[in-house]
Specification:
Length: 236
Amino acid sequence: MDRKIIEERKLVERWVSKQLTPPEERYFEALIRKEPALVEALGLPSVLKRLMQLLDDTQTEWREPRLAFWQTLPVFMGAFALAGVFLIMTIFLYGSREEMRHQMQSVQSAAEVGFLNEPLNTQTIPVQVVRPATGSANSYSLGSRKSPIFSILKIDVHEYQGTLYSASLQRDDGVFVMRIDNVLRDSNGELHWVINSSVLAAGIYDLQLRESNLHGEGSLIGVAKLVVSNTAKPLG
């Protein structure tokens, strides 16, 4: 999905020629840092080699000049002082590091056992969101923690014009639970979100749908309610 956006919007060529808008530039560089495999897939090393060869052939200086010793000495002294600070911090924080190590071991042991219960069933839920302040939101049951269900939410967005969407889930008391960003609609005009009900505590959750930009920011366009039961039998 990210590579498709890069190719459709010609982000590589526009990045090299400095024609990207600041939001596009931040998005492109963050994506490359997050997914290094895209560097090779997009041919960036080849582009860089050709550019450096062209600069050398035209005798255009692009390497930074070597600094004199007296210019680098303050940097060396600063680094030495910083190393001393880190050494002192290490001595004082040794006890905390040991405690953290034990905590990490506990978390790793828990992870090996597994945080989620295995779903007993799978269900597909067509979700119809309603525009905010236009009526009561539709409610959908996800199952329960004691009898977890693997729910595939198909959120209908065919009446909206956006390409990218974000969806968030929060308890009815306003506590944020989870969020997905930069989701593309499929050919049926639907967004897919898969949730194991055992990850959520029993209660009612507000699903909020937004049309978003490349940074996951956008306006609220629809809401729905998701219910996780406290009983062994899921709510109907």
